[in-house]
Amino acid sequence: MKSVVTIVLLILSNTFMTLAWYGHLKFAEWKWFNKLGLIAIVLISWGIAFFEYCFQVPANKIGFKGNGGPFSLIQLKVIQEVITLVIFVIFTILVFKKETFRVNHAIGFVFLILAVYFIFKK
């Protein structure tokens, strides 16, 4: 059960992280947003990233073996990275419709999945 909770929290965390890091590139299409300076955009992104931390920190605390969770620190990081890339690709395809997901991207993801396999192999 802790593994499912950890992964769900990581998915939520990475959704906010992706929005904080890349959302402003899409928000630039809004007239009022274009009038903001870089400092304002950073502060807005920082505000969004706050929610990332609200999910990321509990995910790591619940999921870490040292706290009774099912994952080692390395496993947590690899899970987080794969989730980050999956969320990023979904976000890119849905929000930035001009971006394309190509074969070389798919091949790269296969290697990432292999990385997860080897990280979890005993």
From TrEMBL:
Q: Name one Pfam family in it.
A: DMT_6
Q: Which UniProt keywords apply?
A: Membrane, Transmembrane, Transmembrane helix
Q: Which InterPro entries match?
A: DUF486
Q: Which PANTHER family match?
A: DMT FAMILY PROTEIN (PTHR38482)
Superkingdom of origin: Bacteria
Transmembrane stretches in the record are 36-55, 76-96, 102-120
Please give the name of this protein: DMT family protein
